[in-house]
Design a protein that fits this description.
- This protein is mostly helical.
- The chain is built from four helices and five strands; from the N terminus they run βαββααβαβ.
- The protein has a three-stranded antiparallel sheet with strand order 3-2-4. A two-stranded antiparallel sheet has the order 1-5.
């Protein structure tokens, strides 16, 4: 579980604010906001010319309304990324927030990609025809923003390692494992146990 996972930091964690995290979170938020409000479906079945295209936006009532959950999960993810970037939470809280951020990024990408796949599966298979219902640019922007959130969360999780190694997850039997430890002080350099 996220609240009881036995993880420790692998490297010293940042203590201040992280400008790169804040900038990437801002870019991801902008991509998700524009992606949720942009066209998700471009309906060309009304006519063959560009003037007859119908654009269904992600948040409009005549559109797929998939922009709302993408926007909700995306904005929560951006808030978590900004909390990580500004406050620099330490230890278990940082690991938990990174886990949530990674999951929210995957959720935004998955919802957008699932809608794309459903349109391509149920749509017209004659792609050379000018009278199709196609996915719009909003989906690509939402997928990109979700990918940025996922990458931020994955970067946070990369700073941690498990405290406990479970049975069967160690090196294979018969392999030698290096157990030498470098002394940390000059007084211990010549001491043997």
């Amino acid at each position: 579980s996220v609240f009881q996972a036995p993880y420790d930091s692998r490297v010293p964690l940042p203590t201040g604010w992280a400008p790169s995290t804040i900038v990437i979170a801002g870019i991801a938020g902008a991509l998700i906001l524009v992606g949720a409000t942009a066209a998700w479906v471009v309906d060309e079945r009304a006519g063959a010319d560009a003037a007859n295209r119908i654009f269904h936006r992600g948040l409009s009532s005549d559109g797929p309304l998939m922009g709302w959950p993408v926007l909700l999960f995306g904005l929560v993810g951006v808030a978590i990324a900004l909390a990580i970037g500004f406050s620099g939470p330490q230890g278990a809280l940082r690991w938990r927030l990174g886990s949530l951020l990674t999951g929210l990024g995957v959720a935004v990408m998955t919802m957008s990609l699932a809608f794309t796949l459903s349109i391509s599966r149920s749509g017209d298979t004659d792609y050379l025809n000018d009278r199709n219902a196609l996915t719009g640019a909003g989906i690509l922007l939402a997928i990109t923003g979700g990918g940025a959130l996922f990458a931020l969360g994955r970067g946070v999780l990369a700073d941690f390692r498990r405290r406990r190694v479970y049975l069967g997850e160690g090196p294979p039997a018969g392999d030698e494992v290096a157990t030498e430890v470098e002394p940390t002080s000059p007084e211990l350099a010549g001491v043997t146990a």
